[in-house]
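Hey, quick one: can you model this chain's 3D structure?
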Amino acid sequence: MSIHAWRRLSEQLPSSCQVCDRWPAQPVCTACEKRFAPLRLRCRTCAINLGTSAAGADLCGACRTRTTPALVRSCVAAVDYIYPWDGLIARFKFRGEPGWAGPMAALLLKNPKAVALLQTCDLTVPVPLTPARLASRGYNQSWELAKALRRAAPNASGRHNNTLPDALVRLGEVPDQHSLTREQRMRNLQGVFAAHPLRTAQLAGTHVLLVDDVTTTGATLHSAAQALLQAGAQHVSALVFARTASD
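Sure thing. Here's the predicted structure for all 247 residues.
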């Protein structure tokens, strides 16, 4: 049996919900999806949850008062980075469970804006890891998520949409981002990404869709978008599974 056939079979087999333990169910059952992953009104450019008081708005206060144009044209997220998603993302990212890419992609694709980005963008590019971190982890969770999106929605991808896993390279490790402010994160990631020299011709004039698992301040997406635009991309948008509740 091929790996693709095995993956399709395994995704159809019943299991217990990893949130409420209900059986049989998918990794996250329908009831938990409805409870913990409702469709939220989010900022168009940073995907932060705008809450219920911002009806009719499509930008958060920070993005509305920005003095320079956002490098990421639009950003779509599936969930807030809170329980139970923070724990499931940790399993996906740090505990050798790349199979979470499938359920996470499926949740993203329940957002019509995510499907629209896949239809309109020319290239899909995962945010890369450094070679050392990739060797340690064994896989890039952003690349796993990008592949799962293409598998789950083959008809949602634009006619010219290709996935380029090596379009960006990460030039080095940076200090841990978790304790830094937004401004410090931006400085920390300045110049961290570069377009692969063999991919610049494919990037020229395109609308690129960046894929990542989590965004907090947008510093990683900003730095990656900057490298893509410098390489000749015309626009950059982003799909992320989770967005933190604040910067």
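One thing worth noting: The radius of gyration is 18 Å.
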